[in-house]
Design goal:
The protein has two domains: about 140 residues, NAD(P)-binding Rossmann-like Domain (Rossmann fold, 3-Layer(aba) Sandwich); about 30 residues, no CATH class. The strands form two sheets. A six-stranded parallel beta sheet has the order 3-2-1-4-5-6, sandwiched between helices. Strands 7-8 form a two-stranded parallel ribbon. Helix 3 packs parallel to helix 4. It is an alpha/beta fold. The protein contains seven helices and eight strands, in the order βαβαβαβαβαβαβαβ. The model has no long low-confidence stretch (mean pLDDT about 90).
Length: about 170
Amino acid sequence: MVIIGAGGLGLMALEVLRAMGGRGTIVVDIDPAKRAAALAAGALAAVDARAPDAAQQIVAATGGARAVLDLVGATSTVSLAIAASARGGHVVVCGLMGGDITLALPVIPMRPLTLQGSYVGTLQELGELVALARSRGMRPIPVTRRPLEEANAALDDLHHGRVVGRTVLIP
């Protein structure tokens, strides 16, 4: 499994995969601190998304990714996910960053490649996730607590990608 975006959602996804018995997750991010956090959380490897050979690094580590979870959803990340996917690969895009992709249509049937979107789950899926977390003792993601007076600074950090995990404002 490859996870693109190692922020809070990426760390959560990594923990859910671990709880489900998944091993060998590769995490991709542009931020070295988020890649380090993912490695500390159990990722097998971390790839710099801005590396010119990022797709080749993923293919070398996986033989071609069979499953990619894109938590960013930008042109560059979806393109990377497709480039790193194996024959029969499945790319799920959850992020909403935006952009466009150009895809040679023969890629889809010739590989064959599945490209799927996912934004929000069902109430039943949430219940299953809570049950999984309780039964497998999932570890929480890092949480930084900041006073409410730092709300603007916290939003600025979030906007500039400086948050690893989650930030909670305390009144």
